[in-house]
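Lab notebook page, bench 4
Experiment: in silico fold of construct C2
Operator: M.H.
Input chain length: 332 residues
Purpose: comparison with the prior construct
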Amino acid sequence: MTTVYFATNRKSDPNETGGFGADIVANDSAAITYAVAQVAGINLADEKSGQITDISDKTPGTFSDAANNAVLGAGKNLLIFIHGFDNSFEDAIRRAAFNREWFAASGVAAADTTVIAFTWPSAGKLIAAPPHFPPDAYRADQAQAGRSGFHIAFFLNVIDQLRADYRARNPNGRIFLLAHSMGNYALQSGVQSWFAQRGSQDLMFDEVFLPGADERYDSFLQPNGARLSDLPELVSRISIYYSRRDVAMYLSQAINLTFRLGFDGPDEKTDQAHYPTAMFRILDCTEVKDFDALNPPDATHQYYRRSKIVRADIAACMAGDPAKAGGLIQLP
């Protein structure tokens, strides 16, 4: 059984598995639901495995005292996860549980984490396999990700408050953020909203992992705090993973008519003035081939949880491995 602590800005829908659908709540922090899910049957050989068996401690606006105490008392590093496009609520919770078990299976103690997910209202209905996703369904998901900025900012506020208690209880503990695919589009909206609402530069995360980021390739170069340009104010280091074999990035670029961060890395990636090695690791995963690239059809977009090579790199960062230097990196 895997425990997933989660927050969601999805509206309640009793007709959907888990009780949440694909409609978005109002821009009200009290409308965000926080809860605890139990997921059974995670099998790392089957990425679609897992069933939600229970959801408890539903509270508006923040986690319950019981949930907070459980997170703090576990004594593990924290993994904050924001999922990508084409994820129903059930998919998102199962994906968070899978990721927790996937990284724990690396054998690195620091990668055995407590997972906290934010699930935004993706419809999870991009039925066709990439690169043939219906553009209208893709754009609908993208619009919902962008509208989630207000809610993600308040979620970050909850994480920031939790961080203070966590550091006191676990002085050697580390906190990570992993945003995959269109989760990066939601994240950029949330980061902008965070600074617009609070303006603080609290150092929340020890490391941020951005694999297969479906976000503009020049996101970190935008002026006046736009998009992801202010994210470095909240983190100790950012690891960007990209692949020119990522089939979903071809779809995204065709629809958005803009290069994506997850395709060939960030714009001007060789310029250390923009991407100082102390802050950025920029990893080319194009030649990583230790997984079946055709099964499932979007496997090249899921390499962060299919490739043991990529997992080993992420796990080493979670452990604070000093050998994991910054700058441009080619993974084999």
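Observations: The chain has eight helices and twelve strands. Residues 82 and 179 are 5 Å apart (CA to CA).
Next step: discuss at group meeting.
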